[in-house]
C-alpha cells in the first residue's frame, strides 16, 4: 500500500490537466461567424472573472470591462464597426500576410466581412479598459532613476514615454484578455480579439459612455459559433526560438 502526499497529488493533478489546457490553446481559432442566440449573463461573468484573474502590473488592478448585450446598443455600434473594418480592409488588411496563401486569406477576409455585415446580431461585445493612476514620483526618485539608466537611456525614455505608458497599460490588460479567450473556448463560445475600434475610439467611447480619459484596448465579439473549432495554423517553434542570443 502506498501513501500519496498532498504535493504528489497536486503534481499528478497538474499533469493530468495539462493536455486539456494545451488542447484548448491549440484549437482556439478566431471564430467570427456567430449565431445570434444570446449568451447567458452568468457565462459572460465567467469570462470577465477569468480576465480579472490575469496578471496586473504592480497588482494595481485598474481594469474595467464594458459588456454589451443590448440589441439597440449593438445596432448603434454596427455602423462604427463597419467603418473601422472597411478602413482596415482597404489598408493593412488589403494583402495577405507573408507566408499565408491567397486562398486561405480570402477565407479569412470572407469571415471578417461576414462579421461586419452581421455585427448588429452579435450576442455580446466586451471592451477591456485600463488607466494608470497619476504617477507619484519625487525629485529624489527621478535622480536615482537617471543615475540607474544613464544619460543616454534617460533621454531615450523621454522620447518614448508615451509608447512605454501604452505598453505598460497593455501588459496589464492583455494577459486578462487571453484568459478571457481561453475561458470562452473552454465554455464552447466563439470569440476573437480586435483593435479596429481604435480607428474611431472617440466615437466608440461616446456611444458606450466610456470616460474620455479611459483607454480601451480591444473589442471582443462573443457568441455561439456557427462553425467548428479546429487546429490553429502557426509557425513552428523551431522557426521562432533563438537560444541564448538572436
Automatic annotation (TrEMBL):
Annotated Nitroreductase domain residues: 29-224
Keywords, comma-separated and alphabetical: Oxidoreductase
Regions that span the bilayer: none
Family annotation (Pfam families): Nitroreductase
SUPFAM superfamilies: FMN-dependent nitroreductase-like (SSF55469)
Protein family (similarity comment): Belongs to the nitroreductase family.
Protein name (database record): Nitroreductase family protein
Amino acid at each position: 500500500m502506498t501513501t500519496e502526499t498532498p504535493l504528489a497529488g497536486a503534481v499528478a493533478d497538474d499533469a493530468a490537466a495539462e493536455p486539456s489546457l494545451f488542447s484548448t490553446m491549440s484549437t482556439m481559432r478566431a471564430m467570427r461567424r456567430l449565431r445570434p442566440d444570446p449568451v447567458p449573463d452568468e457565462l459572460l461573468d465567467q469570462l470577465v472573472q477569468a480576465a480579472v484573474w490575469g496578471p496586473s502590473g504592480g497588482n494595481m488592478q485598474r481594469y474595467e470591462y464594458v459588456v454589451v448585450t443590448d440589441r439597440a446598443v449593438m445596432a448603434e455600434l454596427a455602423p462604427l464597426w463597419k467603418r473601422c473594418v472597411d478602413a482596415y480592409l482597404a489598408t493593412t488588411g488589403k494583402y495577405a500576410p507573408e507566408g499565408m496563401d491567397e486562398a486561405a486569406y480570402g477565407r479569412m477576409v470572407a469571415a471578417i466581412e461576414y462579421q461586419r455585415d452581421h455585427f448588429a446580431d452579435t450576442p455580446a461585445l466586451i471592451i477591456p479598459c485600463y488607466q494608470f493612476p497619476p504617477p507619484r514620483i519625487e525629485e529624489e526618485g527621478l535622480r536615482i532613476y537617471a543615475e540607474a539608466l544613464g544619460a543616454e537611456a534617460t533621454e531615450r525614455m523621454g522620447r518614448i514615454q508615451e509608447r512605454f505608458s501604452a505598453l505598460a497599460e497593455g501588459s496589464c490588460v492583455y494577459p486578462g484578455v487571453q484568459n478571457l479567450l481561453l475561458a470562452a473556448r473552454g465554455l464552447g463560445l466563439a470569440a476573437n480579439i480586435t483593435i479596429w475600434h481604435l480607428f474611431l475610439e472617440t466615437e466608440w467611447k461616446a456611444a458606450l459612455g466610456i470616460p474620455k480619459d479611459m483607454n480601451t484596448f480591444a473589442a471582443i465579439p462573443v457568441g455561439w459559433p456557427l462553425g467548428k473549432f479546429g487546429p490553429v495554423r502557426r509557425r513552428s517553434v523551431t522557426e521562432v526560438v533563438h537560444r541564448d542570443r538572436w
